[in-house]
Design goal:
There is one protein chain. This protein is α/β, with parallel strands linked by helices. The chain is built from 15 helices and 23 strands. A hairpin with an 8-residue loop joins strand 15 and strand 16. Helix 4 packs antiparallel against helix 5, helix 10 packs antiparallel against helix 12 and helix 11 packs across helix 12. 37% of the residues are buried.
Length: 503
């Protein structure tokens, strides 16, 4: 059979009358569209970091589909009416749970691969002619069920019974033949080489590899009887798990850039005036002008930050069941000796600043990890004197300066963390009286919680929760290409919009 070779943007496509092989570059769908006029019996997707939307190719006529060495298989095989055989092999970074559905002529599925991460089940449903299913390879322990009907997974969830048998070599290795063991070892070596080629290039793929690296290197060590065989994968697993359990600036450095001016939102940021009745009451009850003292506005805001810090002891789980305003929160915490979390302390500081005429808003900062419920709340206060937002954290009684002694904004701090620019926390900063904890404040406490940031469009007393007045809208500053987390509201990648000066 004669073959021709075409090159599109460094992606080689070999095609003939029977087979088309597409690989390595990520934009495989667009490249296939250029060759759609050809008809093939067999299609091979090989060595592709992320494979998405292959159903948009309209690959009618393909009878055999091969997926080999796919980093992220982020799609299903859906409604391929001519498909008869599906083969998944080599190394798979992440395998999604619904692999195949509504393929009327599909008869055979073979999955024999080293898989780093996958969901708890694989489902092949609405394939009436499916007669042969083989699932075997190296899988995570969390894969507990393979079925030809997605509903049976939920029916069997408590019994963990797999309707279609599958073999996980991590559990059966000691019982297979010597010949099969050698084949498994050879495939593990190939997977190690695949990881060396791809790790460190794409964030999503790194997460898939890192999530399964610990289990994979332990199996490699057992299979070869040597830990040195899996040195790189062992290092990846350790670093991934360490960062997952104790996030640091490394997580923040995986952020994409912002895109000023792109996709502007219709909301305006507003700040309640200091003559608001609630603010007048705050000044009278708490003597806020006396606490803030005299001097430039940034000096006064720093004094209020330390006042909130020493008044309320921090406890990450302590949120009083009261109205979210300065008077109610201080009465429920500082005045009776009860603790409050960072959310409580930031709300109190924001409202105290607004009460003396300094425009301020509290910022909810979230981490990168999807499985993380950790967040931190701090305050941004506008200095007319410095013409910039000033970062204040009442949890630590902290603010940040650069090497020249200039106070920094949240945006400047985030940029400096990403680019390793030296910064310093104020020397009196502490956590419930412990100053030692402030040594890792920037790198291991603040940095991971600046990946996503939320602010309300109207800063006032009782900015959220039950209130006598209407509330503003939450806006989330997200890195480019992200924004699908459950807590994200009205995402924007425009950091200039998010940090615009108050009118």
């Amino acid at each position: 059979m004669s073959k021709k070779s075409f090159r599109f943007e460094e992606q080689e496509v070999i095609h003939g009358r029977k087979t088309i092989k597409i690989g390595y570059r990520r934009n495989v769908v667009r490249e296939f569209e250029k060759l759609r006029k050809y008809t093939y019996d067999t299609m091979i997707f090989e060595d592709i970091p992320i494979l998405k939307d292959i159903n948009t190719c309209r690959i009618d006529g393909v009878k055999t589909l091969v997926l080999k060495d796919i980093g992220i298989f982020d799609t299903g095989i859906f409604a391929m009416k001519d498909l008869e055989t599906l083969i998944v092999c080599g190394t798979i970074g992440q395998l999604r749970p619904w692999v195949v559905s509504y393929c009327d002529n599909l008869r055979t599925i073979i999955i024999e691969a080293n898989v780093f991460s996958c969901d708890t089940y694989l489902s092949f449903d609405h394939c009436p002619k499916l007669a042969h299913v083989i699932v075997r390879g190296t899988f995570p322990d969390k894969l507990i069920h393979v079925t030809d009907d997605s509903k049976t997974y939920f029916d069997n969830e408590t019994r963990l019974v797999s309707k279609i048998p599958f073999e996980n070599y991590r559990k059966s290795f000691d019982n297979i033949s010597d010949e099969k063991k050698e084949q498994v070892r050879e495939r593990l070596q190939q997977s190690s080489k695949w990881v060396t080629r791809h790790y460190g290039r794409i964030q999503e793929l790194d997460d898939a590899i890192g999530g399964g690296a610990s289990d994979m290197w332990k199996f490699i060590a057992d299979a070869f009887g040597s830990w040195t065989r899996a040195y790189k994968m062992r290092k990846i697993g350790w670093e991934y798990n360490a960062e997952k359990e104790h996030p640091s600036v490394k997580s923040l450095k995986r952020s994409a850039e912002y895109t000023p001016g792109e996709y502007p939102l219709p909301f305006r940021f507003e700040y309640a005036p200091e003559d608001t009745e609630a603010f007048q009451r705050n000044r009278r009850i708490f003597h806020l002008r006396k606490i803030a003292g005299k001097g430039d506005d940034y000096i006064r805001m720093m004094r209020l930050c330390r006042w909130i810090h020493v008044s309320i002891r921090h406890d990450g789980k302590a949120v009083p069941h009261v109205l979210y305003n300065l008077r109610s929160l201080m009465n429920a915490t500082a005045r009776v000796g009860n603790p409050g979390n960072c959310f409580v302390m930031a709300m109190c500081l924001s409202e105290a600043l607004l009460s003396i005429g300094i425009k301020a808003k509290y910022i909810k900062g979230y981490q990168l990890r999807d499985d993380s419920s950790q967040y931190h709340v701090f305050v941004a206060a506008w200095s007319k004197k410095l013409r910039k937002w000033i970062f204040l954290d009442p949890t630590y009684g902290a603010w940040i300066k650069d090497n020249s002694g200039h106070l920094l904004s949240p945006a400047e701090i985030r940029y400096n963390l990403l680019h390793d620019v030296p910064m310093h926390i104020n020397p009196e900063a502490d956590y419930n009286g412990n100053r030692e904890s402030s040594k890792t404040y920037l790198s291991h406490y603040l940095a991971p919680n600046m990946y996503y940031m939320l602010a309300n469009t109207y800063s006032q007393d009782e900015t959220e929760g039950d209130s006598y007045h209407s509330q503003g809208t939450w806006v989330t500053l997200v890195p480019k290409g992200e924004g699908n987390r459950r807590f994200i509201l009205n995402p924007t990648t425009d950091d200039e919009y998010f940090w615009q000066p108050p009118e």
